[in-house]
């Protein structure tokens, strides 16, 4: 029997392409050994994803849908591998964590695609489940005694995807208000990158630009069919240049964390918040329920983890 195929979808070639792109944009602070791990893991999980889609006779996908699902796998394998490396998680534990993330992305993206959800809805849905799965994988390792609190919190505090967007916003802001063709293309490409981010993140990024740049970005963000108006090769080149400029992530200040927690508590049901943190230590429950206004001796890194956990649960 001939092997089942999805017309126009060469999963092996696509996986190689994703891995090659990953190799070009691995941040400068990542060692050559770890860079090889990132490239290999992107290829491995992208290939396995594409292979599974081809062999699944219960679903019918076209090449664009299969490519989208596989690209989700590649992108999140890339970002979370960088997060694990930067948080110095033992190399022997990385692939197991990433395998759980890849499986979650595969199932969520596949089911959402089969339900014909628009891409702008799939992106935040996948991100939400990635965050939940990543946290659960770390918690399970901690319960087994192979990961301590510090290592877990360090891993949860990393976010390469956020660092990438914020870094580019800062870089563009420093260039000035000169609207060259190159800059306009980069702004359009950045709009493509952030258009499906949560609104709070988009607002934060926009705030880093001067008025002319912000207006251009807003125009592109408002275009429903932006993807069709920019040449794909140009977009890929611009985004590659953006990613290459990534610095090491900076930890949020306690003041900023407190403001975020205060806003979450203020805009949420108190009982819902209470149920989310009912298993936490009394000190943490008091810190959260007060809207982070009480003076509690909680380390900044721990407060940051609490903040991200609340954001995930309240979504």
Q: Shape from CA axes? A: globular
Question: Residue ranges: pLDDT <50 for 5 or more in a row?
Answer: none
Average pLDDT: 81
- Helix percentage range: over 70%
* Helix/strand/pairing category: mainly alpha
- Rg (CA only): 20 Å
SS field, number of helical segments: 16
Which sheet architecture does the biggest sheet show? none
Strand content range? under 5%
Order of helices and strands: HHHHHHHHHHHHHHHH
Strand-helix topology:
Elements: H1 11-25, H2 32-55, H3 63-86, H4 91-114, H5 119-143, H6 149-156, H7 160-175, H8 181-194, H9 199-206, H10 211-221, H11 226-229, H12 232-244, H13 254-266, H14 270-276, H15 282-289, H16 300-314
Helix pairs in contact: 1-2, 1-3, 2-3, 3-4, 4-5, 5-6, 7-8, 7-9, 8-10, 8-12, 13-16
Write up this protein.
There is one protein chain. This protein has about 325 residues and is mainly alpha-helical. Helices cover about 75% and strands about 0% of the residues. The protein contains 16 helices and no strands. Helix 7 runs antiparallel to helix 8 and helix 13 (about 255-265) packs parallel to helix 16. The termini are far apart. The relative contact order is 0.08. The model has no long low-confidence stretch (mean pLDDT about 80).
Brief sketch in words of this structure:
The protein is mainly alpha-helical. 73% of the residues lie in helices and 0% in strands.
Keywords:
315 residues, 16 helices
């Amino acid at each position: 029997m001939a092997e089942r195929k999805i017309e126009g979808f060469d999963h092996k070639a696509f996986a190689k392409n994703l891995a090659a792109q990953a190799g070009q944009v691995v941040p400068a602070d990542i060692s050559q050994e770890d860079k090889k791990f990132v490239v290999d893991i992107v290829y491995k999980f992208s290939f396995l994803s594409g292979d599974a889609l081809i062999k699944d006779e219960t679903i019918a996908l076209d090449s664009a849908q299969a490519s989208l699902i596989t690209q989700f796998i590649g992108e999140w394998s890339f970002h979370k591998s960088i997060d694990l490396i930067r948080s110095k998680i033992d190399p022997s534990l990385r692939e197991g964590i990433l395998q759980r993330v890849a499986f979650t992305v595969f199932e969520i993206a596949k089911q959402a695609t089969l339900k014909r959800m628009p891409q702008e809805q799939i992106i935040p849905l996948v991100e939400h489940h990635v965050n939940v799965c990543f946290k659960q994988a770390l918690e399970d390792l901690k319960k087994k005694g192979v990961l301590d609190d510090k290592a877990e919190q360090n891993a949860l505090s990393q976010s390469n995807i956020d660092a990438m967007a914020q870094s580019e916003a800062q870089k563009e802001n420093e260039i000035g208000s000169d609207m060259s063709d190159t800059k306009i293309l980069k702004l359009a490409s950045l709009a493509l990158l952030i258009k499906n981010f949560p609104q709070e993140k988009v607002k934060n990024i926009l705030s880093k630009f001067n008025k002319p740049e912000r207006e251009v970005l807003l125009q592109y963000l408002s275009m429903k069919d932006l993807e069709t108006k920019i040449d794909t090769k140009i977009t890929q080149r611009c985004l590659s240049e953006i990613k290459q400029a990534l610095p090491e992530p900076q930890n949020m200040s306690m003041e900023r964390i407190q403001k975020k927690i205060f806003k979450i508590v203020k805009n949420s049901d108190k009982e819902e918040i209470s149920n989310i943190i009912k298993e936490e230590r009394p000190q943490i429950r008091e810190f959260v329920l007060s809207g982070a206004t009480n003076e509690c001796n909680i380390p900044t890194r721990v407060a940051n983890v609490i903040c991200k956990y609340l954001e995930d649960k309240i979504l």
